[in-house]
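Quick question: what would this complex look like in 3D?
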Amino acid sequence: MTTPLIELRDIEKHFGSVIALAGVSLSVLPGECHCLLGDNGAGKSTFIKTMSGVHMPTHGEILVEGRKTVFDSPRDAMEAGIATVYQDLAMIPLMSVTRNFWMGREPQKRVGPFKFIDFDKANSVTMEEMAKMGIHLREPAQAVGTLSGGERQTVAISRAVYFGAKVLILDEPTSALGVRQTSNVLATIAKVREKGIGVVFITHNVRHAMAVGDRFTVLNRGKTLGTALRGEITAEELQDMMAGGRELADLAEVLGGTV
Amino acid sequence: MSVEADRNPESSPQQAARDERVREISPVRKALIRPELGAICGTILVFVFFLAVARDSGMFSADGALNWTVVSAQFAVLAVGACLLMIAGEFDLSVGSMIGFSGIVIAITSVTWGWPVWAGILTAFALALALGWLNGYLVIRTGLPSFIVTLAFLYILRGLTIFASIATTRKTIIGGVREAAEGDWLAPLFGGKILNGLFVTLADWGWIGKLRNGNPVVDGIPMLVVWALVLIVAGHLLLTRTRFGNWIFASGGDAQAARYVGVPVNRVKIAMFMLTAFCATVFATCQVIEFGSAAADRGLLKEFEAIISVVIGGALLTGGYGSVIGAALGALIFGVVQQGLFFAGVESSLFRVFLGVILLMAVILNTYIRRMITGER
Ligand SMILES: Nc1ncnc2c1ncn2[C@@H]1O[C@H](COP(=O)(O)OP(=O)(O)OP(=O)(O)O)[C@@H](O)[C@H]1O
Ligand SMILES: [Mg+2]
């Protein structure tokens, strides 16, 4: 059996008296898309924040490629190859795509005693990486603010991939997107997975999860309700687990099965 | 600087397959739509205006041109610092007080205490950089808006300057710097002129006028103008071509996003506060060496004039966007209008009316241009 890229065992996280996570386990294999589902407040964001070094877990352990690891900061996690694309993306809309793509890691070339940004390289790599994800930029000097939400997600994802992410965590990348852009992002996820990168895909939307997921973990009130393999579970069952089953089934009856 | 020579280094022509949905933008439009566009239009407008109304006033003769060039250079020296700081997301309202402070430091050390002038100048720079650092450190540490922190320093520094001047000499104006600077090795870097020979030759050819004593009406380029040009070119290259420049944009654009990817935002901001203080001291030193005296009330309102130049130049008040070339053109507009109205014999109180109108027009135009470039809503 392959060692998981990252494995979290029995994670608990308390914020004072609030128990946000009460023993959650999850692993990510190379090249798989692991969907993390759950209702609002289920603890999904809190869970991935412990995975990316933002929160220290109150209890439980994290193994990176089989070795026990403690992340003291997001930088630690980044260096271990765990990249997170947050909902707010960490992109600067006023700056160009190239400048955003390379921010903090600009390639340089020497001109006499000075070091300048190597814009030829920066631009061509940016265009190439974006093209690989199926987005053809008008020009790399275009400001990120002129891109659509889906395209911005793609810039953020391709940046993470280019800089060597092994595990890519996406927190609700499709929640604010329309149909066409959602399918772009889902296609991007599929491409990333082909490279052998493990993807953690957080969503409320069962259909989006079913479209690209290999495994599905459902969180409910800080607990895992279990992990299912693709093909072992139907969309309806997932939906039921997310909403805690019962209430939704009742609701479905009232609404005539439209939920 | 021509628009062509300054082509945006980020726009490389080579591209992969095109998306059929993106509308092609004509090269002309692309060359035009840039942060400095508003300032370029403003500059042309201002020159056309004064060529029409003040051509015969001597404004465009050699000495007339030098007059507004020097005034513009004064604004430009301050505008470069203010521009980079504003792009990094901060303001410095203490620039004017810093000018008075640095000037008095030079005068007290060299005249009252009898130090060599170079030592006085270096002391002024060291103190100014330390104060710039303190400004930045307090802004970062307290998380207060730089507007408030530097407003405090506007008062603190001005008060200290007047106090120090009166306590040591019983006066608020200290003269005698020119005599002290005689033969000094550092002072000519701020007070001298270059290309004297060229202007003598030009005068001999009859291209520029001569005074009655046989000297040309313009006998060289003042060092202040040289400082302005050097700062503009260096600032422009730093901002647009270097890694640090990218960090300046990032720090002002979204400090949190910049920190996520490892940009040392605090260091960048503090460095820009120090640069602003540096520019203020260059201005102060040039003025002290040229006038031969320092006054505790020098530099009043200079912080606003610098900010106005920067904003006319297309920078966004909230940071993350702007251009050094634009700021320099803003300074040129400012200088030409101020001196041009004088040449044209317009009542000087109308200058402020003019300035206000230009500022308003520039900001409206710049907002429109910026929206086109950045897709901002
Ligand atoms: N910093 C915090 N301090 C206190 N409580 C917190 C903190 N962060 C999260 N919580 C609590 O933990 C629980 C889980 O929140 P979390 O943001 O992980 O939910 P989520 O599954 O991401 O929800 P959503 O789908 O709405 O994004 C919530 O009850 C929330 O109030
Ligand atoms: Mg969440």
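Answer marked as accepted. The mean pLDDT of chain A is 85.
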